[in-house]
Amino acid sequence: MKAKAKRQSIITAAEAVVSEKGLSDSTISEIALAAGLSDSIIYKYFKGKEDIVFSIPGERKGDFLSLLDSHLQGIEDTASRLRKTIWFYLWYCESNPQYAKILYLDCFSSADFYQTPGYELIREYAKILVRCMEEGVKQGIFRSDVDLHLVRDMVLGLIGCEMISFLASKEIDAVVPDLDVIMLLILGILAFPLNLEEFKADRILNAAEKVFAENGFYKARVAEIAKLAEVAEGTVYEYFGNKENLLLSISNRHFSKVIHDLPEVFEIKNPVRKLRRFTEYYFSAFSSKRDFLKVFLIQIQLSRNFYLTKQIDFFANFLTAIEQIVEEGISTGYFRKEVSPRVFRNMFIGTFNNLAFRWFVLHKDRQVDMMQKINEVINLLSFAVLDPSSSLDEIKDIVNK
């Protein structure tokens, strides 16, 4: 048997053994036996069982990307292209459950995997998602005021939670049937019908706040604020009169929001506000517990046994609160009736998981304005479920937060 064939037989055997028993309970001897080779031959090609398993996604990279490219051929419509890109990933994992189980429950559950060539497949797929969304922005199909890399993380996080529901908790029997609802949420974020003219004043205030913070009042130039807000300089004066009025309007906006929100702090009835408050609570409550997140995100949540013990009950009950908020929003007409509370829950948790992992594990030394990102996430999650027929005041209530 040639070297290339031996290597492939080892990987194929490892996929079969590890998908059944898990990485921690599998041995080199079992993999060697399944491959019809001796233990010593294994070590000629790999350093150990982790090296074998972490190589599996890398071995599939070429075929995966080539097959995805063939599926995308001839699809000109950007929204359809994005749909096909997400469908392909769901279909591929559903069609290759052994591989998917290893990827999500063995590879992703080890921090070491993210430093290996095997992770390149995920990086390449993520780039394809972003390029597709960028094309939609260029064509005017998708909004230009959304952080596409943040949306990318939300998409990958949602897919990850869908896979856990399929592979580990066995909550669903397949992931592809959720595609319509998944796209409903994603397109709700990317293509929510906004009249940006209505938000000129808010864009100016947001830009002014940033410029004043960086340069101070006296050094700040109205021309710079206008450029950042993407409006003419005269428009700034039209809305606010002069630079000082603009400065004061920033504080007025913030204090008016605080006063407006006080009655609902402890007794929230509006589902949109309830979702926002719940998201703020969830992110703030756990973002401060970095050590817990490192353990939970990788070592607990992606553990096979976690879904077989009673410890899952508390987490499941906690997640039910998200679904209840969505159900209330649907029943009261604030949220679209087509939204699946379960799939949205997966987007919610998956988004947090992905962001927390990037902040505290993958790029732990990188400086990130977490509060700003959390606020962006809150807005995007709200748009994902909000009924497009909502009033302008309801939409502004999200955008202006």
Biggest sheet statistics: none
**Uncertain stretches:** none
CATH level 3 topology of the largest domain:
Tetracycline Repressor, domain 2
Percent strand equals: under 5%
The shape, in one word, is elongated
Tell me the domain tally. 3
Write the layout of secondary structure elements.
Elements lengths: L2 H19 L6 H8 L3 H7 L3 H24 L5 H18 L1 H11 L12 H19 L9 H20 L11 H12 L9 H16 L6 H8 L3 H8 L2 H19 L9 H17 L2 H11 L10 H21 L9 H22 L7 H16 L6 H8 L2
Description:
The chain is an all-alpha fold and 401 residues long. The protein folds into three domains: 3-142, Tetracycline Repressor, domain 2 (Orthogonal Bundle); 196-258, Orthogonal Bundle (Arc Repressor Mutant, subunit A), CATH 1.10.10.60; 263-399, Tetracycline Repressor, domain 2 (Orthogonal Bundle). It has helices at residues 3-21, 28-35, 39-45, 49-72, 78-95, 97-107, 120-138, 148-167, 179-190, 200-215, 222-229, 233-240, 243-261, 271-287, 290-300, 311-331, 341-362, 370-385, 392-399. The chain is elongated and about 80 Å long. The N and C termini lie far apart (64 Å). The mean pLDDT is 85.
